[in-house]
Amino acid sequence: MTHQILDSVLDAVGSTPLIRLNRIAQAEGLQCNLLGKVEYTSAGGSVKDRIAKWMVEAAEKEGKLIPGQSVVIEPYLRKHWHWACYGMCCQGQTPSFLHTEQMLNTTDKGYSVIITMPNKMSLEKEAALRALGAEVVRTPTEAAWDAPESHIGVAARLQKEIQGGIILDQYRNINNPLAHEYTTGPEIIEAVVPTSSTSTSFSSGKVDVFVAGAGTGGTITGISCAIKKTHNADCIVVGVDPQGSILAYPDSLNVEGAGSQYIVEGIGYDFFPDVLSRDPRDVNSWLKTTDEESFEAVRKLMRIEGLLVGGSSGSALSGALRWLKSEEGKIIAQTKGANVVVLLPDGIRNYMSKPWFLKMALEAEPSPLAIQISSILHKS
Ligand code: PMP
């Protein structure tokens, strides 16, 4: 790892570590390398930092975002519309860290930001957005995506009425998958390709399997393109979609639990975003996950690996483990040196007040040590 002074916080977006999940692999009886791409170490704490930076910078280059005039309005995909965007964009008066490189010398440029987000989204996300200076508008979680009162409908209404309003639209913006094709994907490839200083003995030297959840689908589509075009055309890409969402393919997978609400944030939808590739050559296989198995996998990632990840990371891991146990995945699971990369999109600090997390953290069975502490402290 190199250490250097960065020009601004924007330079701390991405460059996240790929970490061995050896203890989980061992507990599950896997011979392959199970590797987690840990995105919460990015400056804003989420995989979404990357696309925010790319979309804003691309819109500036295209002249669509006008400093001092534009108001960035973005529907938050039942998830993080992430920090780099609101951090980069908020408030014209804010000093240089909020601006892109070209704007560093011009402290009077900048954008206001409005985020529309469903009530389901955590308070932590709203608080972080407000702290960064964004306006947040809550919308009913149960509203269909095309209803006027949904976060997408409200964003569209605001854009019409607010002068300078612009929606960068992560659902359709090609810079969403491109951010992953040019940053996240190459980082993963670089980490697994052997160099003279890394041993190749327990690694195939390539990404054999890549597993990720899909919200907009930008992450899985962009990383799949990077891996398949430049590195390993035979990599198996596995998509994870919560029960109640319709993103999985073939459609028959979406029948069980159709229409049900799920608690995990950031993945799944009730329409197909344009940036999600449904081409089986890009995403080879899909799996449906439940809240229960996602949260159980979060618990494992915390307890066994010490990784403070959020709910959708649990979905990705539980999907990966299920795939590795399936007919399709069992040979890879037992292949020493095969690299199975799981994308872990964000951290638990976004969900600290959520009942599912509080239950997991505070209502666990007391450990023998806790019982011992209690008996020491309650001795008369
Ligand atoms: N998990 C979380 C917490 C997210 O915020 C997102 C972004 N939607 C994802 C997973 C999936 O990312 P994408 O939109 O690129 O599919």
From TrEMBL:
Name this protein carries in UniProt: Tryptophan synthase beta chain-like PALP domain-containing protein
GO biological process, alphabetically ordered: cysteine biosynthetic process from serine
Annotated Pfam families: PALP
Gene3D superfamilies with a match to the protein in the record: 3.40.50.1100
Keywords: Pyridoxal phosphate
Family statement drawn from the similarity comment of this UniProt entry: Belongs to the cysteine synthase/cystathionine beta-synthase family.
Residue ranges crossing the lipid bilayer per the database entry: none
PANTHER family: CYSTATHIONINE BETA-SYNTHASE
Cofactor(s) the protein requires to work: pyridoxal 5'-phosphate
Domain Tryptophan synthase beta chain-like PALP: 10-73, 109-346
